[in-house]
Design brief:
Elements lengths: L9 E3 L2 E3 L3 E4 L6 H11 L3 E5 L14 H4 L6 E5 L6 H14 L5 E4 L12 H13 L3 E6 L3 H10 L3 E4 L13 H10 L5 E3 L5 H10 L3 E4 L1 H4 L4 H21 L23
Parallel strand pairs: 3-4, 3-10, 4-5, 6-7, 7-8, 9-10
Antiparallel strand pairs: 1-2
Helix pairs in contact: 1-9, 3-4, 4-5, 5-6, 7-9
Amino acid sequence: MKSNENLDPLVIGGKSYSSRLLIGTGKYKDFAETKAAVEASGAQIVTVAIRRTNIGQNPGEPNLLDAIPPSKYTLLPNTAGCYTADDAVRTLRLARELLDGHDLVKLEVLGDPKTLYPNVVETIAAAKTLVKDGFKVMVYTSDDPIIAKQLEEIGCVAVMPLASLIGSGMGILNPWNLQIIIESAKVPVIVDAGVGTASDAAIAMELGCDAVLMNTAVAAAKNPVLMATAMCKAVEAGRAAFLAGRMPKKLYSASPSSPTGGMIGKS
């Protein structure tokens, strides 16, 4: 089977990617495991929590960029751990300095430390500032279609609704809202948060999502590298199924799956 990756690229911020799986770098036991899992995933966009991971701001400490070099991957600095618009903006401006003017970023502003549900009011405020500041903003948000459309209209280059709470592994709890977001969006829609296993990723892609971002589902697996491989295959399979167009669902079918003409006893 020939790959269709060149015919079906994921385009974010004007750049094309063949992989539709984005992967995080937190929660692994060490940078060696991080590197192995990222490689197994086939991901080209790798997200980094600037407040929790050293990418040069702490000289003398192990540097993630030695394991995940910017020459090989598109780094996606994120604002995990930020609870206000000001903190998020400050964090991403720091990331731009550390990464020599890098402008593709992931914005997330959390509402509380227990659920990690997004604070959409602060998210919208931060998005407005960052877009005006020249950033290409990929934004984590709730699965509210109205909020997703507002973030797109602000100028975000991708909207990233949650499937369920961050780190919950509960999978897609509201596919109907995701479908509404997908149908109205003119920018990529990327499921972010809540994926637990390969079937969750495949379902997201079958719904028509442009990509899936995950971290805990891989890092917290008993075998992270093997799970990364499974996720790679699931995203590819889900995308192929979406493009193929599934058969309609029916309670029962009066049409047999095999031709009946020429059967013994049939005229």
